[in-house]
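Message: I would value a second opinion on how I read folds in token form. Give me a protein, with the fold worked out from its sequence. Write it directly below this note and I will take it from there.
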Amino acid sequence: MTMACAGCVATPSRRDVAPVASDIVLHLPDIHCAACIGAVEDGLARVQGVRDVRVNLSQKRAFVAAAPEVNSDVLIGRLAALGHRAQLLDGTQVAGQGAVGQDLLMRIGVAGFAMMNVMLLSVAVWAGAAESTRQVFHLVAAAISLPAVAFSARPFFASAYRALAAGRLNMDVPIALAIGLSALVSLVGALSGSDRASWFDAALALTFFLLLGRYLDHLGRYAARSAAADLAALATPQALLMRDGREHVVRADTLLPGDVVRVTPGSRIPADGVILEGSSELDCAALTGETAPDPRQRGQDVAAGEMNLIAPLLVRCTRAGTDTTLRRLADLIAQAEMQKSRYSGLADRAARLYAPVVHLLGLAAFAGWWGATGDAGRAIEVAVSVLVITCPCALGLAVPAVSTVTTARLFRLGLLVKSRTALERLAEIDEVVFDKTGTLTTGLAVLETVPSDHDLMLAAGLAAGSSHPLSRALCAAAAERGLAPVAVQDVAEVAGCGVTASLDRVSLRLGRPEWVAPDRTASDRSEVWLQRGTDAPVVFAFSEQLRPDAAACVAALRADGIGVSLLSGDAPAAVARIARALDLNEAQARVTPEGKVAWLQARAAAGRRVLMVGDGLNDTGALAVAHASLAPSTALDAARSLADVVLLSDSLLPIPGALAQSRRARRRMGQNMALALGYNLVSVPLALAGLATPLIAAIAMSTSSLTVSANAMRSAS
């Protein structure tokens, strides 16, 4: 089993403009809509030295790429001026989401208890109580309602105040205005003896149902929590540090490279490192998707978050704290969850227009009804309903909820989504093209020919400077014979061709036959030639095996109506053998890196949307120009860096699942946008017509948000 090192896969994709390397990650506890996202991104982007900003609504985080002189205090101060609380992200913030739910539950309980008591008082009034009794009941209702509203609705009031103090509007401003108007008019009615005093019911009910909607939305976010949050939950808070021959319990985030820790069976690895003593089996399922335990022994690497299953281990830390595999994966996935699509752009623009439009609608509703009826109380009631019912929560959740659910689902299938636009592009794929060696095949080539010891030692000396599977096979063959590679000088790898070097001032070449000796004819086998000076080339022939699930992957893609092709730089005979085994109609051999790029460009010109799957240096150009790209965990660093998606395990079967999940996600985004826009098209006219009370408006608004969240959750099924 092989896993991808997060230190390698965490390199940002070059496909996206201004990718975010999260130099600073801030926790934003108060953001809850697309308008908040826009305000935070715009505000921080104006700070000198900030290169890029992206906000993850689901995790309430801002990822900031900034110059070294920009520190978190500057950014936090800027957000404070904009009316947003922020703090430098700490690992405890994930666990802190439970405190948010508890706080909401407490406020819901207070609002609900007060609402029931006020309703009981209202029943007595409606039953025909005497005027003096009715007046007393109204004042008692005021004494119960006002403190309850002040406490329970505090999140809305505080958020609205911060926004207004910063000279901007957010979605909590009209909500706070609606609750405040209901309570104020009720108080005036109670003091003046007006029948409108029963509005205390509305103020409390409005607060109760709005809080209930926010709590249910919180539960939905938790149920659909991101893979980044799941990974963060794997981080162990403490470690057994070995110092002076004794164990010391320390915080895991205080470990430094070079520290030695003891990992007992049943414990997770606290930091990336190398095993110094012991051998065991590790559970890596959460990181790679592989369910089978992975045996490790002295000298092998381990990663933070892996579970030690059998025996104690002594591990020397190589990366700790915020630099571990676990943390890099979590940060990378959190950025990938901020998927950008045509739908998110529409939602952002609609959310920015929301605040001024809804206030104008509320004012127009008040003026219209007051002018038409002369009843100020009725006009305020309609205006309050309009302010509440037009809340854009559903619109703000439409895209982020689906992105979070889908990227988390793909990660659990063994796919690390790196690009912020990957989901939309993967949903458009109608053809997949594979490289052969190391992608459709295991990449573990076996040397078939029997060269002399001298030739094999010389070839291994050149191959030691290359990561190509055939180079590794040459080194393995030399090691099996107990031969040491010859020390050569001036080693250089030529992409798609081979390796050059020199020995005793004689030039050496090891690589593709047509590059080593263009004047000679190569066979159709998978071969590497070695030439010393002008001597006749030495031929090394290899064989390789298909990945066990390659045929199943191709069959699943075809079943989904997706075309499958093969492009390889290998010999025609080797490519033809793989094509026959997989029943591929389109398979080309001896394709150069430039040829792969040209093939993909021709396909794009013909209107095809191609996913390139490759692992080598000669695939990097194709990975860069393809409509979408994917690299296996065994790929070179350059290939993983360019790929939109990285396979974390050896299996190819997640590829059809990724395309299916992406198509499903695109449909869910469209459905959510339609639901959100449809809700406003229906509800706003009803509110303006006076057909929705403030209570009904609160229930409708909460229901719309829950509907969008529930629909997003379907993308995980």
Q: What stands out?
A: Confidence is low (pLDDT under 50) at residues 1-22, 90-97. The longest strand covers residues 50-56. The longest helix spans residues 92-126. The radius of gyration is 32 Å.
